[in-house]
């Protein structure tokens, strides 16, 4: 690996300071692939440098995960260990920072029985329900960041030797997280302000509907009158900001669960549960997904929408200009963290409490009454292109162009 120690340290510092914003005396929960141990260690060092009282690391290994799916007993996938739930919840209670270094391997579970994958998604989703609620209500600071694996790099850059592919993927990740800027922390401050300006503008419009038109797409998404657009940094109850995703280019809100009608087509492959789903079209009636058709990964897509009843509805609608820096790089990352930030997208599954006015303190029932979907899953899929037009329908029925030919029109 030719990425320098100094670069890893810069990245680790950005993750600790801008990502989760570690405070003196706080605990940190880090999960990281052993293949990325050098970055994991750099994050641990930076977290202690920022005053962390303790850093807990869950080391993960794709090879072990694959073996488990191949060889473990069927029942293993149907229940999530209680001790694992307790461990995670204990860190939530302590208001720890959660850092997750993800290293996609789009073909990791190729050929594995989709029932096992579906069962695992279901049981892990239920086992981590409390953790998910805490993150989706901004009660703890959390950040998902990426690092290359050989398998991932080879998928993104198939035409070069794997070492070179890994280097290129590091550089692409560093570009996407603005690490090449002289002062990345300051660069993120400016980017944050730009996204917050769009959020303010959209929140001022109070649209009641969004209308999407593109080849293969004709979709109307209703918005609750209390919907809130958000983007870039989030805030914990104590007012401290953090970035849940590094990079992030999106502004997003929550669709009214039962007010989505029409059809939408994917524009990038979706890496889900260790498999690729590609060339798919989803049809909605009164918010419910009534049909899915995929050129690749049909069975996996069907598993996804059958995870629970909430997996039949949307939980997020996000706007990203076709000219975003990640999109301009023209790299298909096969990883949602990057591909969703290069494209308008929607998410199947649960909606975020903070996307409704006062939602952070609402019960799940109250959120439901405001049209927020609930599910154990939340999976973003990409629908943006240079051909996409989006209109906002105002309360008085007037039509405001939001996107024209893939880019902002407001
Ligand atoms: Zn999103
Ligand atoms: Zn999402």
Give a concise summary.
This protein has 410 residues and is an alpha+beta fold.
Q: Summarize the biggest pleated sheet.
A: 9 strands, antiparallel
Give the class from helix and strand content and strand pairing.
alpha+beta
What is the 3D form? globular
Distance N terminus to C terminus? 44 Å
Distinct compounds present: zinc ion
Instruction: Please mark out the parts with pLDDT under 50 across 5 or more consecutive residues, or reply none.
Output: none
CA gyration radius, whole angstroms: 20 Å
Number of helices: 13
Average the pLDDT over all residues and give the rounded result. Answer: 95
How many extended strands?
A: 20
Q: Approximately how much helix is present in the residues?
A: 25-40%
Beta-strand fraction estimate:
25-35%
Number of domains: 2
């Amino acid at each position: 690996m030719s990425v320098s120690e100094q670069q890893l340290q810069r990245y680790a510092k950005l993750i600790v300071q801008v990502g989760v914003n570690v405070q003196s005396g706080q605990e940190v929960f880090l999960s990281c692939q052993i293949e990325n141990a050098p970055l994991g260690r750099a994050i641990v060092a930076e977290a202690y440098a920022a005053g962390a009282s303790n850093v807990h690391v869950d080391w993960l290994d794709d090879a072990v995960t694959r073996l488990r799916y191949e060889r473990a007993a069927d029942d293993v996938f149907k229940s999530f260990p209680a001790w694992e739930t307790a461990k995670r919840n204990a860190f939530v209670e302590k208001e720890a920072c959660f850092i997750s270094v993800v290293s996609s391997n789009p073909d990791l579970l190729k050929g594995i029985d989709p029932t096992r994958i579906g069962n695992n998604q279901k049981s892990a989703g239920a086992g981590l329900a409390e953790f998910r609620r805490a993150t989706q209500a901004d009660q703890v600071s959390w950040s998902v960041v990426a690092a290359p694996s050989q398998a991932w790099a080879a998928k993104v850059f198939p035409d070069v030797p794997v070492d070179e592919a890994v280097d290129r993927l590091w550089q692409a990740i560093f570009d996407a997280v603005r690490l090449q800027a002289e002062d990345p922390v300051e660069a993120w401050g400016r980017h944050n302000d730009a996204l917050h300006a769009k959020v303010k503008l959209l929140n001022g419009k109070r649209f009641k509907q969004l209308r999407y038109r593109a080849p293969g797409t004709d979709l109307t998404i209703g918005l609750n009158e209390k919907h809130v657009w958000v983007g870039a940094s989030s805030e914990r109850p104590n007012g401290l900001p953090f970035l849940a995703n590094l990079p992030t280019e999106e502004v997003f809100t929550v669709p009214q669960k039962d007010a989505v009608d029409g059809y939408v087509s994917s524009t990038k492959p979706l890496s889900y549960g260790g498999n690729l789903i590609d060339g798919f079209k989803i049809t909605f009636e009164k918010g419910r997904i009534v049909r899915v058709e995929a050129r690749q990964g049909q069975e996996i897509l069907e598993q996804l929408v059958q995870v629970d009843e909430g997996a039949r509805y949307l939980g997020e609608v996000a706007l990203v200009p076709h000219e975003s820096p990640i999109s301009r790089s023209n790299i298909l990352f096969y990883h949602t963290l990057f591909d969703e930030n290069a494209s308008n997208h929607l998410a199947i599954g649960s909606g975020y409490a903070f996307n409704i006015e006062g939602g952070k303190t609402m019960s799940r029932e109250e959120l439901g009454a405001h049209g927020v979907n609930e599910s154990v899953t939340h999976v973003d899929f990409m629908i943006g292109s240079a051909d996409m037009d989006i209109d906002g329908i105002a309360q008085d029925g007037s039509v405001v162009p939001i996107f024209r030919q893939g880019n902002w029109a407001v």
